[in-house]
Design brief:
9 helices; 2 domains; alpha+beta; 7-stranded mixed sheet; Major capsid protein gp5 fold
């Protein structure tokens, strides 16, 4: 009777699937229909197997073990009535069950009990199928947002901070970058004899101007999201914009154009661009490149290197050829308390440096000669309003700060006894 009903159910399920093929059903509904047919077919196959087993047993009789209790050795007419009702499936001792398993492996014959155990697990409700109970199990949600932290700015603690009381601050500076005659911007001293007047001189000055501009971020969010989200969406915005501000300011110190924004070292008139070697292969950095950059650095002991991550393989092979050996100029650190160094100074790998082969893929800078001006304390301010998009039932979030930055040097320095200029900011020319 059960097999007959299963076949009727299968015919009905196939009709449902055929009818659904001509309708607009969802993927989930279609999957449920297919899984239902597969389940019924599996049940039919099991039922047919069991009937075959009964026919086989009816032909040869059934004896689990001569040593078993009467319940362990029922005649076929009692199989359905007794062992399926027994939690131990008719086995009075574990040893009898294990012995039957070993015999089954040797002889290749399974008793109804073992076949029943082998068939278990496909005709019951479980979490394996959404249709048969899986969707009843709730999914968990962790109220946290995973994110990649913004890259640390190694220049932040090294720049010269200039608090600004107004949008524009003018700072006087000596014009003292030509030391061929004077290191003080024009003043000179000299030896004189008695009654002889010294030569007069005067100092030349220039103006360094810092003009703060607004760095801003804006975002909208619906009131429904703000009210019902399990995670504070405002906190997500605050952290996200904090990372964006830090990223933008670091990038501008290197690449800023100066047009309503900070002047980056790559666009400064004081930055020295060291030429590549004659015949140098494209997209490479050699030991001689690094020595040439070191040669042009003013106050090297206060400088740090910045390089794109793409530069690392070239640095590993960069060396100086000596009489008896090659000496590497890059020394890898341990990444914790011992930094990577080039010619004794730390090197920081950053995504804001340009890619290998372009000008700015590696830089050597004394950031104390870079001025970073901040208005209003330099902190990021925030404001929100429900009125900007009131009819849309949305809230507006605004984040802003006022700052600017620039090298205060307006030209490289000419030493007293050399025509080779020096600068706190040195980079390598493109090697395309």
């Amino acid at each position: 009777m059960k097999l007959k009903q299963l076949k009727l159910d299968l015919d009905a399920a196939k009709k449902d699937l055929t009818a659904a093929a001509g309708k607009d059903v969802t993927d989930e509904e279609w999957t449920a229909l297919v899984e239902n047919i597969q389940s019924i077919e599996a049940s039919i196959e099991k039922e047919e197997d069991r009937l075959k087993q009964v026919e086989e047993i009816m032909g040869r009789g059934f004896d689990v073990d001569a040593k078993a209790d009467p319940v362990d050795n029922p005649r076929i007419g009692k199989v359905e009535d007794q062992w399926k009702k027994d939690p131990a499936l008719g086995y009075s001792r574990p040893g009898i069950f294990l012995e039957e398993v070993m015999n089954a492996e040797k002889k290749g014959q399974l008793s109804p009990q073992l076949k029943f155990l082998a068939a278990a697990g496909s005709d019951e409700a479980s979490t394996l199928s959404n249709v048969y109970g899986g969707f009843l199990i709730p999914e968990a949600f962790r109220p946290e947002v995973l994110s990649v932290s913004v890259e640390a700015d190694p220049t932040a603690s090294r720049v010269t901070q200039i608090p600004m009381a107004s949008d524009v601050v003018n700072i006087p500076a000596r014009t003292d970058k030509n030391h061929s005659t004077s290191v003080s911007g024009g003043l000179t001293v000299g030896r004189t004899t008695e009654t002889q007047a010294p030569s007069s001189s005067r100092v030349a000055l220039e103006n360094v101007k810092l003009e703060a501009t607004a760095l801003m971020g804006l975002s909208y969010a619906s009131e429904q999201l703000l009210e019902r989200s399990a995670v504070s969406f405002i906190a997500i915005l605050e952290q996200g914009f904090s990372d964006e501000f830090a990223s933008k300011m670091f990038d501008e110190k290197i690449n800023g154009t100066g047009a309503g924004a900070p002047v980056g070292v790559l666009n400064s008139a004081a930055t020295i661009t060291v030429a590549k070697e004659g015949g140098q292969t494209a997209d490479t950095i050699t030991g001689q490149n690094l020595i040439d950059m070191r040669h042009r650095a003013w106050r090297y002991g206060n400088s740090i290197w910045l390089a794109n991550h793409d530069v690392y393989p070239s640095l590993v092979t960069a060396h100086v050829s000596m009489t008896n050996d090659d000496i590497p100029v890059f020394v890898p650190g341990n990444g914790v308390d011992v930094p990577d160094t080039i010619l004794g100074r730390p090197v920081y790998f950053t995504e804001y440096a340009n890619t290998l082969g372009d000008k700015g893929d590696i830089m050597l800078c004394d950031w104390s000669q870079y001025l970073w001006g901040t208005l209003g304390g330099g902190s990021i301010q925030s404001a929100e309003s429900m009125h900007v998009r009131f009819v849309n039932h949305e809230r507006t979030f605004k984040f802003y700060t006022y700052n600017t930055g620039s090298p205060w040097w307006k030209s490289a320095l000419t030493p007293k006894n050399s025509s080779t200029t020096l600068s706190p900011f040195v980079t390598l020319a493109a090697r395309a």
